[in-house]
């Protein structure tokens, strides 16, 4: 009948139900993450004998006076029962809350990820101010490592045992083994300060100010960060392709006279992408929460650099806010990956 779903294919209702289930699971996971984050920053220290004054000292800087610490205890209600504190914490995320600053109050609108008493401002606007730099770094590097890693993995699998395969896997092993702060400093020393090909550290320019300088400043961080991840993706893609290329349906596709490119891309690579999507979502979610080492190495004022500065300045609300922010991106990335599964492999919708 017109408008009916083709026989043997999941209907639109199944697709919608699949997405709804994943969204509900993501919301529940965010609730669990908020509770776990609260426990790490508030419940566990209190269970280990930390006093409200000791906890408050982590919110007002290293050189705070006893009067400032006592004021933080009252402002944050750290002497209230733990369940009351969590209720206020959760309410702040959803509906916002106010903080007392002596004779006046400071408003922290939703989503309130905390209030920095060092800077006298909510954490959320600070995160949004640093987010473009982190987005630029994460998405640019992700494109480079995904294309190069998967491409090298496919070529290595199709040329198994050749010099190209061995060279690519050796480079991949080096990429996985070398820490980002080592490759970052070496690349800065050679390509920026010695050869002068790329700008040095601290040269990041927002894309809204100068797109050309934005691109030039991020080429080296992109390549350095992608070198670490592309190596892992190349090895995983190679292993998946070698396993898939030996399957019966690949031999059947070749026996039908299909072009080799069609067999590789449409049949073999598509089956290999499922585990790649899984780790890609996790890796990208982690980077969106702050590429700490890369941003610190290249002096990019992103979320990762923000949390490092907050740790040094004993500004715990910022650390707490970044933790929640990063967890949100990881859960969101997992949700997107789950939905993409249904695109890559429609059988996932039925599970």
From TrEMBL:
Keyword tags: Cell membrane, Membrane, Transmembrane, Transmembrane helix, Transport
A GO cellular component entry from the record: plasma membrane
Positions of transmembrane segments: 23-44, 135-158, 170-193, 213-236, 276-298, 318-344
InterPro entries documented for this protein: BPD_transp_1_N (IPR045621), MetI-like (IPR000515), MetI-like_sf (IPR035906)
Subcellular location as annotated: Cell membrane
Main location: membrane
Biological processes per GO annotation: transmembrane transport
Top-level taxonomic group: Bacteria
Pfam families, A to Z: BPD_transp_1, BPD_transp_1_N
Database matches in SUPFAM superfamilies: MetI-like
Signal peptide: none
Bilayer topology term: Multi-pass membrane protein
The ABC transmembrane type-1 domain, residue ranges: 131-341
Annotated family: Belongs to the binding-protein-dependent transport system permease family.
PANTHER family per the UniProt record, alphabetical: DIPEPTIDE TRANSPORT SYSTEM PERMEASE PROTEIN DPPB-RELATED
Record's protein name: Peptide/nickel transport system permease protein
Upper lineage: Bacteria, Bacillati, Actinomycetota, Actinomycetes, Streptosporangiales
């Amino acid at each position: 009948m017109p408008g009916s779903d083709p026989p043997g294919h999941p209907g639109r209702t199944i697709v919608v139900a699949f997405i709804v289930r994943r969204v509900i699971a993501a919301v529940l996971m965010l609730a669990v993450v908020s509770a776990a984050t609260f426990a790490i920053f508030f419940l566990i220290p209190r269970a280990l004998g930390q006093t409200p004054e000791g906890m408050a000292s982590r919110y007002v800087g290293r050189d705070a006076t006893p009067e400032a610490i006592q004021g933080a205890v009252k402002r944050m209600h750290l002497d209230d029962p733990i369940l009351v504190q969590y209720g206020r914490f959760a309410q702040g995320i959803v509906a916002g809350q106010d903080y007392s600053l002596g004779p006046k109050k400071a408003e922290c609108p939703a989503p309130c990820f905390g209030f920095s008493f060092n800077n006298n401002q909510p954490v959320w606007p600070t995160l949004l101010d640093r987010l473009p730099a982190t987005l630029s770094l994460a998405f640019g590097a992700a494109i480079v490592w995904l294309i190069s890693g998967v491409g090298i993995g496919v070529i290595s699998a199709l040329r198994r045992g050749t010099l190209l395969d061995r060279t690519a896997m050796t480079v991949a092993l080096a990429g996985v083994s070398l820490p980002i702060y080592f490759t970052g400093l070496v690349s800065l020393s050679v390509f920026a300060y010695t050869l002068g090909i790329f700008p040095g550290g601290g040269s990041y320019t927002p894309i809204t100010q100068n797109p050309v300088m934005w691109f030039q400043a991020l080429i080296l961080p992109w390549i350095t960060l992608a070198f670490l991840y592309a190596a892992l993706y190349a090895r995983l893609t190679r292993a998946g392709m070698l396993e898939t290329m030996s399957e019966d349906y690949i031999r059947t596709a070749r026996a039908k006279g299909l072009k080799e490119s069609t067999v590789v891309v449409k049949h073999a690579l598509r089956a290999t992408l499922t585990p790649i999507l899984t780790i890609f979502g996790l890796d990208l979610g982690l980077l969106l929460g702050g590429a700490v080492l890369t941003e610190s190495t290249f002096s990019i004022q992103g979320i990762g650099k923000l949390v490092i500065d907050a740790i040094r300045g004993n500004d715990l609300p910022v650390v707490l806010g970044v933790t929640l922010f990063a967890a949100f991106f990881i859960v969101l990335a997992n949700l997107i990956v789950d939905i993409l599964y249904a695109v890559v492999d429609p059988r996932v919708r039925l599970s």
